[in-house]
Amino acid sequence: MTVVLETSLPNLFRRGKVRDNYEWGKDLLIVATDRISAFDYVLPSGIPEKGKVLNQLSAFWFEKTAHILPNHVIKTVRSLAELNGHDGPGMEYPAYLVGRSMIVKRAECLPVECIVRGYLSGSAWAEYKSKGTIHGAQVPAGLKESQELPEPIFTPTTKAETGHDEPISTAEVARLTSQDIAKVLEEKSLALYNFARDYARNRGIIIADTKFEFGLLGDQLIIIDEMLTPDSSRFWDLDIYQPGQPQPSFDKQMVRDWLIESGWKKEPPIPGLPDDLVNRTAERYQEVYRRLTGKALEI
User: Fold this and answer.
1) Which CATH number does 108-240 carry?
2) Which among 8, 54, 117, 156 could bridge 32 via Cys, Cβ 3.0 to 4.6 Å?
């Protein structure tokens, strides 16, 4: 298995923790690498084929949810020939782009992370234990960790370039965007989550929570970035789900746990990951892809 930690193409637009974005004429080429981050640091070890899982699973969900909201996808790159004649830099393209990249419309990104929670976990569980609230709102007493909430809750945050995203109210979402856009962001986030939750549950996967990102193409709201992946969502196995305790996740939780147990102080130098952990994490990513899509990853 190959690991792609860095990409090097002309016209770099933005390099994120995982994705490298390149100007592609008037559009963008988004390349999902195999980098993995934890506690706001990019780790020196990559997860084999992780970027392909993120790219192909996002493409799957973008297609499945297009009836709810349009998205930014122009085409997913399934062969290098698809890159020719599309305003690219006109070069010999590296083979690693196949399966882990897509050409997308360049939208105006909205400065909000749109998080929907269907189950009580993570920071929401910590807040509930401490204050009896979720995102500052009162919810029924007596809920257990990992329990399904009576209704999914929209819990937006800031979109921080560095450090942690901070919870914000719907009024603050409106201030950052507009009153009309804020209302649609909440409605569409909940509609997307509800559709995906029901679809995934029929395939033995619980989507506990997820993050959406949106942009504007002129006046048209679209969904951008990634969608319903192990990096942006908390996926649990329905067959072993037991409320009242933490749940094993199809994501990088094993990596976070190992880093905590290693005694790392969450500052440089950043430790490398053992091979067995890298391989187990890669398999978890690919397993949830298989279960959600019903097919093997295109490698």
Assistant:
1) 3.30.470.20
2) 54
